[in-house]
Write a structure and sequence with these properties.
The structure is a homodimer. Chain A is an alpha/beta fold. Chain A is built from 12 helices and 15 strands. In chain A, α2 packs across α3 (51-64) and α10 crosses α11.
Chain lengths: 370, 370
DNA sequence: GTTTTTTTTGCATGCGTATGCAATTTCTCG
DNA sequence: CGAGAAATTGCATACGCATGCAAAAAAAAC
């Protein structure tokens, strides 16, 4: 067998001289026999140009391969049409989904996305400096928060901030979340109705509002039925930590018979530990419920009962909130809470209650819950 | 129970007047009692400024909250320090990973990332127009190809193009791939050595070079042992299509006892179908091997044997290739092929051969293969 | 202290576009 | 056909910064 070309770099063909001289509006103007202003106007929707002139300009532009320089435009209009998106990590499978939908949503409105990610461990402040230099029209934060000072700086600079899936106390940040509290509560009701007695909660990022609300809702729902003592561990949105957390709970004297895990990303890991390390049957021995309803939750191997994060409406809301503020050039601070519903599958024992079918997904809708 | 605030938007606090007047170098200069040039130089590493002056400037800048305007700088330097990244979809779990590592790599070198994604169905050409208007210094394409015309346009504009995980015939695009052909070949050898007789291949995007090479390598490896007739179906990188493909194969008169699926993303779906729809045991009834070695492949539920896509070195190579071209302002067209190795787990029957442990992962390294 | 060398500074200009304004053209209508 | 209204066009300027060049200041050499 030939050794193969593995690891080798095989250059083919020499470098091409690169003119690098981008075509300017000036040149197009000369070619079309008009002024530079005319060229500008031909590319500005709604500007005052005679149709015939516009045609001439567009033709010349096409011939020369002209493309307006967005940077130069930004300098004048003071609008970059770029949104800075900060997403510290993408492990949780909802984030790629969010990213795709977000990109599509922004694109549709003529905005681009400057993405900052891949700094899970490092701090996000240096990143912030970079974002701001590019004069983004808005800042969208997911899976991160901004220190209060930085939020102030944004406000001072007139850059609206929208937090996704997180809330903040800062008076001038907007946010979009799912109804975490209600979700936690519904899960509690569901599990209680399913006849469980020993509950546990595995937290995500303990400091995040999202985690706090889910936990609070869960505890609230449980205590309404007299369950106030529950197992607790922290997974930190990290698979390693999550497994450790799960092991701790399952190895206890009185292991839980129902575990609510703060996000599917972790819940799947918990299920793996339960089954393959402790030989537990799900849901016969232990019920596991997650939050987010990621794609894999629906796979037969997992069939994870999970509270659906309404990604699409959340993204829409976030984009709307952003546009609203950009267009009105004023910082608004609205908090949008999008309702979700419990996708009932096989990882938790079913209560007798009202499980309905909606678009092929079972959801649970007890009276007065919704 | 209260109806809850679901779906409601609750404004808090009025809008804040937004000055929106960003601080300019001019203002900093006045405050520091120097010229605007001095300010510029204070922020340019290696520029000619007295330390004392620089201090004064930085102090004034800090007081005023000055941040250099990257757009204005771009206009002069003709360098945006932005790389356009086009990633049509993020379903395949390696892409979020790539994105994170890429962002980190670019960030480290002072580059930002303008991301275009979420247009799986739509064509990527309109997106292209947008990217180019922002005068990106380079273009990185993953999970997409560029039409030949567009490649030409990039070259004409002096914008280097690096394809990630895809190759192209175009003479002036660089590319970074794993050694797909060798990977396919190794998998064939591995499965043959494991005693399988009836092989099948499930393709990803049939037109992509990556898929072609994996398939070619697989067929090549098999035919070397006299197996030239194999099952074939197309998953199109789509879970729905993949399931259909798998059903077709497993329902055949002579179902395969070894399936190589073009990517883990699809392989996991195939495994689900095998187990839960056909009641097949993996690997007793059928062996399944994937490519990419995504995170989930290692979960006990799947324990998917898979050829590891060397994401980190690939990203490094891509970034290097990009930087090299940007810094030399010349389009190079290098093709970098990064070697990988087979991560041996439980989804395929083991051959007697030389399975070694490396960093906790079993790999298979028959003589002369590497 | 003077001359030479080196470092630092400010001036002026230009990057590519958008836009207010005035000049010009075209259109409308009597 | 002419006056007025409306539409179109070009001119000039500004956006915020980097940079070549010459002037000024500081340092070094004598």
């Amino acid at each position: 067998m030939p050794a193969g070309a593995s690891g080798l770099s095989r250059p083919e063909g020499g470098p091409a001289a690169t003119a690098r001289h981008a075509v300017t509006a000036e040149e197009v103007a000369r070619r079309a026999g008009v002024s530079q202003s005319a060229v500008s106007r031909a590319f500005t929707p709604g500007a005052s140009v005679a149709p015939r002139t516009r045609e001439k300009v567009l033709a010349a532009a096409r011939e020369l391969g002209y493309r307006p320089n967005a940077m130069a435009r930004t300098l004048i209009t003071n609008r970059s049409r770029i949104i800075g998106v900060v997403m510290a990590y993408l492990d949780n499978m909802i984030y790629p989904d969010v990213l795709e939908k977000l990109a599509a949503g922004l694109q549709r409105r003529g905005y681009q996305m400057l993405l900052f990610t891949g700094f899970k461990d490092r701090h996000s402040d240096p990143v912030f400096e970079q974002v701001m230099q590019y004069r983004v029209d808005g800042l969208l934060l997911a899976s991160t928060t901004l220190s209060s000072d930085l939020s102030d700086e944004c406000t001072a600079a007139g850059v609206p901030v929208v937090m996704f899936n997180r809330m903040t106390e800062h008076p001038l940040c907007s946010s979009v979340t799912s109804d975490n509290r209600n979700g936690g509560r519904q899960i509690a009701e569901f599990l209680v109705a399913g006849g469980h007695r020993r509950f546990a909660y595995i937290a995500g990022a303990a400091i995040s509002s999202t985690n706090r609300d889910r936990e609070a809702g869960f505890r609230e729902g449980l205590s309404r039925h007299g369950f106030s003592q529950i197992g607790y561990a922290e997974g930190n949105l990290e698979l390693g930590d999550t497994r450790t957390a799960a092991r701790g709970l399952f190895a206890a004297d009185e292991p839980p018979d129902a575990v609510f895990v703060g996000s599917d990303h972790m819940a799947l890991a918990v299920m793996e530990v339960a089954r393959h390390e402790f030989g537990l049957r799900v849901p016969e021995d232990v019920s596991i419920v997650g939050y987010d309803d990621v794609g894999a939750a629906d796979w037969p191997s997992f069939s994870l009962t999970s509270f659906s994060l309404p990604v699409e409406p959340m993204v829409d809301a976030a984009v709307e909130l952003m546009m609203e503020q950009i267009e009105s050039s004023s910082i608004l601070s609205h908090h949008r809470v999008v309702p979700g519903c419990l996708a009932v599958r096989g990882s938790a024992r079913l209560p007798g209650g009202p499980v309905r079918d909606r678009d092929g997904t079972l959801i649970w809708a007890p009276g007065g819950m919704e």
